[in-house]
Amino acid sequence: MHQKTFLIIFFMLCSLLRPAWAQDYTIVIKGGHLIDPKNNINEVMDVAIQDDKIVLVAKNIDAKQARVIDAKGLYVTPGFIDIHSHNFHGTKEDHYLGDGLEALPPDGFTFRSGVTTVVDAGGAGWKTFSTFKEQTIDHSKTRVLSFLNIVGEGMRGGAYEQNMSDMDAKMTAMVVGQHKEEIVGIKVAHYSGPEWDPVDRAVAAGKIANVPVMVDFGGTTPPLSIQDLFMKHLRPGDIFTHTFAQLESRIAIVDGQGKLRPYVTEAQKRGIVFDVGHGGGSFRFSQAIPALKSGFIPNTISTDYHTGSMNGGMKDQSNVMSKFLNMGMSIQQVAAASTWIPAQVIHREDLGHLSAGAGADVAIFGIRKGKFGFVDSSGFKMDGDQKLECELTIRDGKVVYDLNGISSPYWDK
Fold first, then answer.
1. Cα distance between residue 85 and residue 305, in whole Å
2. Any idea what the CATH number is for the domain that residue 207 is in?
3. Rounded Cα gap, residues 149 and 160, in angstroms
4. Is 2 contained in some domain?
5. Could you give the CA distance from residue 78 to residue 357 in angstroms, rounded to a whole number?
6. Domains in the chain, number
7. What b-and-e string marks burial along 161-195, b requiring 16 or more CB atoms within 10 Å of the CB?
8. C-alpha span between 340 and 38 (Å, rounded)
9. What count of other Cβ atoms lies within 10 Å of the Cβ of residue 221?
10. Maximum pairwise Cα distance, the chain
11. What DSSP assignment string belongs to 169-230?
12. Reported pTM
């Protein structure tokens, strides 16, 4: 064999057979405290990314020619998953959160709080989902998923959401089946009548399509029984959102004496998922603090993001997570409720973790110490001494938000 040909073949084989530690990576996150609930990691580890995938999680990864992100003193987690958001943004008047002006285009409001995946909670129904997909899902850098409204017209507000003749379980399930990549569940919300039909039709659609149902429940006086909702109408895996709301039209989970109703704990053990869904009117410290003190913690932390909530006490995912950190949840619990647990709830186990081969969605954040004020949806305040602050977000292997430039080279070097 000619010497030149031999050398070419030799170097090609060396390139193919070199060990993992010698690989070239696109990005290496160095020295951060990694919290990856799926993989039971809670320690300082490096994370290597190649293009759009996680390829290695280990101690002291050789960065070679990679773009190095120094995360020393910061936390590194999978990108946050907000399973209750409103992103069917449009320009139509009187359309509320379904192609209306109060929903939010996601990319401007997700990455800066560490969120890489949102689930729109019922903005679109089976009649309007194609518009939502073309208008928002297909044009967003944020991963946008959907709970499809049992109401065909979606979350248009007013009489549209009271129209039981537009609550079609079969048509809803059919559209879910046509868009399995984007639609992860069914949503029922805002119905103000005394009937159980909207919930039961949503559950029927969920059974046909094999997806969970998220329920924004309550709107009658006297209110319907949430115990019956948990034990007789919802299935294990279905989601009760606005867990810590305190409204006249819905029985609260904490009673007037500050005690958690015992059937709430029983329902959670049964498999009912309790979601925060903070929103502009659905979170009270008078509910959350006693509940957490009794040992009850929500399964998932979410925002109920729209123009009203973002400018009120909710603000963003990081702020809602900070509230629960100050109310006694550990940073590991808060991270799990914003990553791996919601991924399981929506049956998207490809998300919410940093296993080798997983998509490279990453949140890097610090916990600031100081004196902070947190406000609930009724205007009441709680003091806290720690607050999450998103430093950097990676979506699909690309840096999409960098608060202090920790991924950037200095201009004079």
1. 5
2. 3.20.20.140
3. 12
4. no
5. 13
6. 1
7. bbeeebbbbebbbebbeebeebbbbbbbbbbeeee
8. 6
9. 10
10. 91
11. HHHHHHHHHHTTTTEEEEEEE---SS-SHHHHHHHHHHHHHT--EEEE----SSPPPHHHII
12. 0.94
Q: In angstroms, rounded to a whole number, what is the distance separating the alpha carbons of residues 194 and 172?
A: 23
**Residue 105: cis peptide before it, omega within 30 degrees of 0:** no
- Cα–Cα distance measured from residue 98 to residue 76, given in angstroms and rounded to the nearest whole number: 34
**100-106 long-range Cβ contacts below 8 angstroms, 24+ apart:** 100/156, 100/157, 101/307, 102/306, 102/307, 102/308, 103/306, 103/307, 104/305, 104/306, 104/307, 104/310, 105/136, 105/140, 106/136, 106/140, 106/142, 106/144
Q: Which two tokens stand for residue 184?
A: 């992860």
User: Would you state the structure tokens that stand for residue 282, as one six-digit string?
Assistant: 């659905």
The answer to whether position 231 is within a domain reads yes
Q: Please, are residues 103 and 122 in contact by the beta-carbon 8 Å criterion?
A: no
Tens of pLDDT along the chain (413 residues) come to: 555 444 444 444 444 444 444 468 999 999 999 999 999 999 999 999 999 999 999 999 999 889 999 999 999 999 999 999 999 999 999 999 999 999 999 999 999 999 999 999 999 999 999 999 999 999 999 999 999 999 999 999 999 999 999 999 999 999 999 999 999 999 999 999 999 999 999 999 999 999 999 999 998 889 999 999 999 999 999 999 999 999 999 999 999 999 999 999 999 999 999 999 999 999 999 999 999 999 999 999 999 999 999 999 999 999 999 999 999 999 999 999 999 999 999 999 999 999 999 999 999 999 999 999 999 999 999 999 999 999 999 999 999 999 999 999 999 98
Domain assignment present for 394: no
Domain membership of residue 259 (yes or no) is yes
- CA 158 to chain CA centroid, Å, is 27
Half-sphere exposure of 176 (CA within 13 A, CB side): 28
| Residues 386 and 367: beta-carbon distance below 8 Å | yes
d(CA 371, CA 159): 45
Domain extent at residue 322: 80-345
User: In the beta sheet, which residues pair with residue 57?
Assistant: 47
**Cα three-residue angle 15-21-22, rounded to 5 degrees:** 35
Which structure tokens are listed for 117? 């995946």
Residue with tokens 């840096």: 399
**What DSSP line would sit under 228-265, residue for residue?**
HIIIIIPPTT-EE--TT--BTTB--SB-TTS-B-HHHH
